[in-house]
Design a protein that fits this description.
- The model is unreliable at about 165-170 (pLDDT under 50).
- The longest helix has 17 residues, at about 255-270.
- The radius of gyration is 31 Å and the shape is globular.
- It has a six-stranded antiparallel sheet. Strands 11-10-5-2-13-14 form a six-stranded antiparallel sheet, with no helix packed on it. A four-stranded antiparallel sheet has the order 7-8-6-9.
- A hairpin with a 4-residue loop joins strand 7 (about 85-90) and strand 8.
- By secondary structure, it is an alpha+beta fold.
- The protein is about 30% helix and about 20% strand.
- It has helices at about 70-85, 110-120, 140-150, 240-245, 245-250, 255-270, 300-310, 355-360, 380-390, 405, 410-425, 440-450, 455-460, 465-470, 485-490, 510-525; strands spanning about 5-15, 15-20, 25-30, 35-40, 45-50, 55-65, 85-90, 95-105, 130-135, 180-185, 190-195, 195-200, 210, 215, 220-225, 230-235, 315, 320.
Length: about 550
């Protein structure tokens, strides 16, 4: 390939809030048709909220309290003849008198006062200035509304096209617009945008950017989707992308095998660009596309394989092939037409002796755990997380994890155990747990004390900071004594609102929400227990030896 393309990897498609960090001194934010923002901080949180058009004041001019219509119309005619300005009479229904409106509205007090003096100089000294407040949607809001109107099946709900003009215009805007909210420690890192926002390190080529603690090369782009939540995309060069794919897809310690994998992965990526275009990205980081683990998945052999095959793709009749591959074939691969609805002459079944049952029989081992019963793919990560936590002291109260189990609130016993595990990590005393503890306000009290210490939130946050963080629909349900605790957890990304812009203070956290919260704390503190690996000889009668 002559030019290296950028690849867009959809890391998550339903986030309420994400944390983006870098080890560089500061992050840079970029949006379409705008100069880069230097954020003066290396850590920010991103969420979404309903768009709030700014309120502006305009000034109009009138002579009020005229008794009759005839007097008003005669005065309007006199004004038109004397000044050349527009003037017309109308009935003031509230006062039951007539008034004469004069000229165009003005946008500033100075312009209004100057115009009033001009009218007085022409004999109309009793002109009154009337101030009106009006919502003025931004030019971006108008442009986004037009984008959505002509966007077809696109699920992207942030502005991704240049606006063309910086001047606001009067045009209808779409209902339910939502904007990206960025919140960081510096003043420049606190802003909102109706556009997609991409975040990168100051030295982007050599320093990765982290999403919820996980490092990726390139940039992390965030935008609102059709569900009102956030889609997060890793925008990365093709070759850098492959560094995190090849070791994830092939662990065989053979350079030539990994070079073949690099060519296959590169070809697949090029051939499937825009595979999820309606969602705003090209590929997923899972087996649905190619497994992509970011910087943490990279290996020295994988990097060598990518480097030595740089730019090489497999083609058929001048076009990149659909380079399908599999981790396990059961002893033989299959012709494409026997699996898919297409027939490619280069996708022919072949024997694979290393996949035969006899070859693998000595290596088969069995587990006594009942497999999880899931319908929601997003809960798969929670199964892995709960399994990892369960072997590190966290109580697991079921023999089979399921979607319903994750959506239920944790039992009092479970929650007590989980919070005690956190208390041990923070070096705090065990909290008293009751039926109310799983609710956000009571949980906020315990977590704020663990994470920050006593009264930290009340000390560090002003009332304005608290109000800013609690700008959601049911914030009034939060007791005054818990507002600062909830606000600081919102600020740092531990708490987030539901898609309907509510926190639901009276609704206990589900196990899923609680586990994701624990994962976030462990990730930020770098406490996540590492999986251990080992090497065994072939099994004998189903037992490891």
């Amino acid at each position: 390939m002559a030019n290296e393309p950028l690849i867009r990897i959809g890391l998550t498609t339903n986030a309420n809030s994400v944390s983006i960090t870098t080890s560089d001194p500061q992050l840079i934010a970029a949006s379409p048709d705008e100069p880069n923002r230097f954020l003066a901080t290396n850590k920010i949180t991103v969420s979404a909220r309903s768009y709030r058009p700014p309120e502006i004041e305009i000034y109009r001019f009138e002579i009020p309290n005229i008794e009759t219509q005839t007097e008003a119309e005669n005065l309007a005619k006199e004004i038109r003849e004397a000044t050349g300005e527009k003037a017309f009479a109308s009935l003031d229904l509230k006062m039951n008198t007539w008034r004469v409106a004069i000229g165009d509205t003005k946008e500033t007090v100075e312009e209004a006062e100057e115009y009033k003096l001009e009218l007085a100089g022409k004999g109309f000294a009793d002109v009154a200035i009337v101030t009106e407040k009006r919502l003025q949607p931004s030019n971006d809001a108008v442009a986004l509304s037009q984008q959505l109107k002509s966007g077809g099946k696109s699920e992207v709900r942030s502005l991704i096209k240049p606006t063309g003009s910086s001047q606001p215009v009067n045009a209808p805007i779409a209902a339910n617009l939502r904007e990206v909210i960025v919140n960081g420690a510096s003043a420049t890192a606190k802003f909102s945008s109706l556009k997609s926002v991409a975040f990168g390190a100051l030295n982007e080529r050599s320093v990765p950017v982290r999403l919820n603690g996980k490092a990726y090369r390139g940039r992390i782009e965030v935008f609102v989707n059709s569900r009102g939540t956030l889609t997060v995309v890793n925008v990365v060069s093709l070759e850098d992308y492959l560094l995190g794919v090849v070791p994830s897809e092939l662990s065989l310690p053979s350079l030539e095998a990994q070079k073949a994998q690099a060519v296959a992965a590169r070809t697949y990526a090029v051939a499937n660009t825009n595979g999820f275009g309606t969602q705003g990205f090209d590929l997923l980081p899972t087996i649905r596309s190619q497994v992509y683990g970011g910087v943490s998945a990279e290996s020295s052999m994988g990097t060598t394989a990518v480097t030595q095959t740089r730019g090489i793709v497999a083609t058929y009749q001048g076009k990149p092939i659909n380079a399908l591959y599999t981790s396990t074939c059961g002893g033989r691969t299959e012709n494409s037409e026997n699996i898919f609805d297409f027939n490619e002459p280069y996708l022919r079944g072949v024997e694979c002796s290393l996949e035969g049952h006899r070859h693998f029989e000595p290596f088969l081992i069995k587990t006594i755990r009942i497999p999880a019963k899931l319908r929601d793919e997003q809960n798969l990560e929670l199964v892995r997380l709960m399994s990892l936590l369960a072997v590190n002291g966290f109580q697991l109260s079921t023999s089979q994890m399921s979607d319903d189990w994750f959506e239920d609130a944790p039992t009092q016993s479970e929650l007590s155990n989980w919070l005690n595990q956190l208390a041990v990590k923070f070096g705090k005393t065990f909290p008293n747990v009751n039926r109310e503890t799983a609710k956000p306000t009571e949980l906020a009290r315990i977590l704020a004390q663990m994470i920050y210490g006593d009264a930290y939130a009340d000390t560090i946050l002003s009332e304005a900071d608290v109000n800013y963080q609690l700008a959601f629909d049911d914030a009034a349900e939060i007791p005054q004594t818990r507002r600062a605790d909830v606000a600081i957890l919102m600020r740092d990304g531990y708490f987030s609102v539901y898609p309907d812009l509510t926190l639901k203070p009276q609704k206990p956290f589900s196990r899923a929400k609680m586990l994701r919260l624990i994962k976030q704390i462990y990730a930020k503190k770098k406490w996540m227990p590492a999986l251990q690996s080992g090497t065994t000889q072939s099994s004998e009668n189903g037992n490891l030896v």
